[in-house]
Amino acid sequence: MKDSKAKKLKKLVFRSMHRGTKEMDIILGKFAIKNLHKFSENELNEFENILEIPDDILFNWYMKNSEIPEIYDTKILKLIMNFKVNS
Questions:
Q1: In this model, does residue 51 exceed pLDDT 70?
Q2: Which of 36, 54, 59, 86 has the most CB within a 10 Å radius?
């Protein structure tokens, strides 16, 4: 069980850091490194679903240039949107 969680964490951190846009690589990569090890399996699954959202949409939400649709406004996404890269 621990091995499978460790593999999933490694995969999610990698995906977070290699998205396609430098801004989201930095934001999601640093968020993943700092937080994923504390997440439950359900929270990891939620994070994995967030990784399916295109970078331009996530970045606009992060910069507060557009509102997050209610369907995506989850606990984990709120954590990401409030994450400060320099903290």
A1: yes
A2: 36
Question: Can you tell me which residue has the tokens 């846009």?
Answer: 21
Q: Considering the domain delimited by 2-81, tell me its CATH architecture.
A: Orthogonal Bundle (1.10)
Which residues are CB-contacts of 44 (< 8 A; sequence separation ≥ 6)? 5, 8, 9, 12, 36
d(CA 65, CA 61): 6
Spell out the alpha helix ranges (H) of 1-87. 2-17, 22-35, 41-50, 55-62, 75-81
Tokens of residue 23, six digits? 């801004």
Q: Is the pLDDT of residue 3 over 90?
A: no
State the helix-helix crossing angle for 41-50 and 2-17, rounded to 10 degrees. Answer: 20
Place of tokens 């399916």: 52
Q: What is the pTM of this model?
A: 0.92
Question: Domain ranges in the chain?
Answer: 2-81
